[in-house]
Amino acid sequence: DANAVWQIAQWFDADDPYSRTVTPGANAAPWLKGPFRFGVPDDSDLKFFGDDETPDLFQQAIRKLQHMGGIRVPIDFGVFRDAAELLYAGPWVAERFAAVGDFLMRESKGVHKVVAEIIMGSTKYFAVDAYRAAYKLEELKRRAMVQWSLMDVLLLPTAGTIYTLEAVDADPIRLNSNLGYYTNFVNLMDLAAVAVPGGFRTDGLPFGVSLIGPAFSDQALLRLAGRFLGERAGRTSELPGCVLVAVAGAHLSGQPLNHQLMERGARLVKSCRTAPDYRLFALKDTAPPKPGLVREPDLNGWGIEVEVWSVPENQFGGFVAAVPAPLVIGNVVLDDGQTVKGFLCEPFALSGAVEITRFGGWLNYLNHETEENVLTTPSKQL
Amino acid sequence: DANAVWQIAQWFDADDPYSRTVTPGANAAPWLKGPFRFGVPDDSDLKFFGDDETPDLFQQAIRKLQHMGGIRVPIDFGVFRDAAELLYAGPWVAERFAAVGDFLMRESKGVHKVVAEIIMGSTKYFAVDAYRAAYKLEELKRRAMVQWSLMDVLLLPTAGTIYTLEAVDADPIRLNSNLGYYTNFVNLMDLAAVAVPGGFRTDGLPFGVSLIGPAFSDQALLRLAGRFLGERAGRTSELPGCVLVAVAGAHLSGQPLNHQLMERGARLVKSCRTAPDYRLFALKDTAPPKPGLVREPDLNGWGIEVEVWSVPENQFGGFVAAVPAPLVIGNVVLDDGQTVKGFLCEPFALSGAVEITRFGGWLNYLNHETEENVLTTPSKQL
Questions:
Q1: Who among B127, B314, B344 is closest to A328 (CB)?
Q2: Under a CB-based contact definition with an 8 Å cutoff, are residues A172 and A115 in contact?
Q3: Chain B residue closest in CA terms to A237
Q4: A97/B130 touch (CB, cutoff 8 Å), yes or no
């Protein structure tokens, strides 16, 4: 359901000045296949407000994400907590006055007393407070960037505990503030979040967790939430905002040009083979040494070993631009029939190149070359 | 000099929460080669505040840009003028109080009386005014997007006229407001601008014009300003934030896949030929019909007709991803020796393809095909 709403809500609304379109790659989630890193606050920042059972339920959610291939990363929740505090303990309450103040002034009896009090209280803030708070928020967003460089997604309780209506009526501001401890920073910091059921307390009441990511990560969060709830992982091709590219030589993990993928935020999706109709050549005069992959329909071989990487779409153009001749970017069919982008080779470079298809892949060929040198070099000395 | 400062100032400053890095394509200026569109306000919005000579000097600047290949586009300056008014006639003066208010309170005697008055006057604004004005600015930015879709760059007088110090002292707020009529919206609307000398009045005093573009267009504006001041256009390869791609078939202007370039904001840079060592084939079974370009070193032909398009870097990845087999994106050498990206072809597709190198290009071949059909079809009926 959330996905259906999101599919509609994501479109640009020309009548809404705050509506945004996804620029290429802004929704990229190359981490969605393979291992991903999820941030969890330190124990000292995890608050459950006296609830006996929700701490265990949260630990279960952590283990569930780990079973899904998630790598738990400790993060500093302080910067998010500070941003959350700005929402009600700062001039942003005046933004609510901008939205509903006129209505409140007209008919305050239709409005909850506590809500009216809080919003009317915002008139104590001056414009200079608003600009100072905006600077402070920018600073917190910048500090949060360090935390986001450590994780792909942030896992939090949606609320540390739950309260009865009577309890909230008796102590509304403090208890509501407790309920918002893990959520109040999300809008201010321009983040996306999805709340997912996270089990039940023994009294039958529910607990939930939130998956939080940068702006435009909505689709990725929904996919992860689906897997958390037991959906199977979809096809590797369904990676929002990413282009899949098969590499067969110098861009393989550990090889000299792999950094061109890493520095563009690409992630390894899988190692596999091409369809059986590809041949591999060791090219002449390339530095570092590179292979050339060529499709020959009707060839019935064993396929060539490749790695498939997911590259954010806005980074892929620069990656392609950096590819030197005789290498080209075309389409490569994998052993499971999927077609992805991949390195191929201009025909002229094959004349004089050594066919190495029988090695089944570039690394096997390189290992073989080394062994041969090791074996042959000493024998030459004899 | 401005370029030297910009080269240094553009880098990310981790200590400045408002510092930003250029994301791929954000600085793209595919319009920098070939015809570009420059916006000029309607006469009713052009104010020279009684100056007799600056209106002519501005018209000269317009003609100069036209001689450089610029296409004059009338735009609605109202939305920019409204944003400019927000700066001093709205709560943003309180942002200045946030910056220097403490200093003002301490030692007001070191500060210009008028400046102090304006900034101290900002204490009348409440936080709710700041949020309302922020909404208003967002709305104006959105309305300005329509104007930016009409033009690549905005040409304005930097100031409509100039005043003596005495005149400003006598009527400081009104005259300063006149001086800011063409500039006060630039920061608020997140734009980039460069001011360029625009000639002299007969009394020897200077007039200037501004070239204004979206955020991160700094490098493009400086290049255009350089040409305005008489620098020669640089190499076609020096297009910030763009990738040059040579197209030889269905992506040519007027051909069925040209829209894939247009809808990504690409611009035609030039029509030319490849280096002499390329062969062209009409591929079998492609829809729409496509040619395959293949390099054959040592071939001494006449080159193949291509168009070179500049594509914003963040859009190029999606463009490459959409290229179907047997076409690939590799490097193409042009007749002037420059290497750009371009469409090439997998070797397997050449078997059974018809070589059409002798036509010199895809359009010639298509024309020839049509003529042949026109000539042969009726004769068959005889």
A1: B344
A2: no
A3: B321
A4: no
* B125 has a chain A CB within 8 A of its CB: yes
Contact B101 A139 (CB under 8 A): no
Specify the 3-state DSSP secondary structure of A327: strand
Residue ranges and CATH numbers for the domains of chain B are 24-90+125-228 (3.90.1300.10), 242-376 (3.10.490.10)
Q: B139 and chain A: CB distance < 8 Å anywhere? A: yes
By the CB < 8 Å criterion, does A21 face chain B? no
- Pick from B12, B88, B104, B128 the residue to mutate for testing the A interface (most A CBs within 10 Å): B128
Report the C-alpha dihedral over residues A126, A131, A136, A138, rounded to 10 degrees: 150
Whether A25 contacts chain B with CB within 8 A? yes
> Going by C-beta distance under 8 Å and a sequence separation of 6 or more, which residues neighbour residue B196?
B208, B209, B210, B211, B225, B228, B229
pLDDT tens for chain B, residues 1 to 382 = 777 777 777 777 778 878 888 888 889 999 998 899 999 999 999 999 999 999 999 999 999 999 999 999 999 999 999 999 888 778 998 888 888 888 888 877 788 888 888 888 888 899 999 999 999 999 999 999 999 999 999 999 999 999 999 999 999 989 999 999 999 999 999 999 999 999 999 999 999 999 999 999 999 999 999 999 988 766 666 789 999 999 999 999 999 999 999 999 999 999 999 999 999 999 998 999 999 999 999 999 999 999 999 999 999 999 999 999 999 999 999 999 999 999 999 999 999 899 999 999 999 999 988 776 655 444 444 3
Is residue A177 packed enough to be buried (19+ CB in 10 Å), middle (13-18) or exposed (0-12)? middle
Q: What is the pTM of this model?
A: 0.89
Decide if B129 touches A, using CB distance below 8 A. yes
Q: B338: burial class by Cβ within 10 Å (0-12, 13-18, 19+)?
A: middle
Cα B249–chain centre separation: 27
